[in-house]
Amino acid sequence: MIRILIADDHAVVREGLKQILADEPGMVVAGEAAGGIEVLQFVRKTDFELVVLDVAMPGKDGLDTLKELKQIKPGLPVLILSMDPEEQYAIRLLRAGAAGYMTKESAPEELVAAIRKVAHKGKYVSTVLAEKLAWILDGSSDRPPHERLSDREFIIMQLLSTSKTVTEIAGELCLSVKTVSTYRSRALQKMGMKNNAEYSYYALKQGLLG
Fold it and tell me: What is the pTM of this model?
């Protein structure tokens, strides 16, 4: 039996996932979490075969949650299910230890197939993402500028691109305003940019905005 922990801050999404998996043989939703901290509490006290994890959650985002999950239970497979396009976070999440990545626009049968594959220690990515991974791993290809950013710098720049203020981002990520401003300055410097608008234009051209 594949015991699954579903982590998403939207109750309607969790309910939808439960309905998709309800009639699947050998699967059971054994836990639900609405935030990253709750996910970590669950896995410390309960055994699961798989975690289905959203990227954007309050208090502790999916990337930070994933990193801590892999420290607590390195062998626990994590399938990322996100609203964001694959190009935005997928590669960073896979590098951080995710066993698979798919968008919430995926068909239910694709989700079920991905869960079965990941639960049996496989990896799941779409054909489009597989091609992008192959391109990045090609030694003759130059890495795009945004891949010079650290995970935290990248996340903050993405949030700034959605017109959120430094203060709003600080509250969302549980950081100080000064810390967020420092990450922003470092990111702009690494990319040779002067302001948020330049990054937003770049992100739009690169398909990084959902």
Answer: 0.69
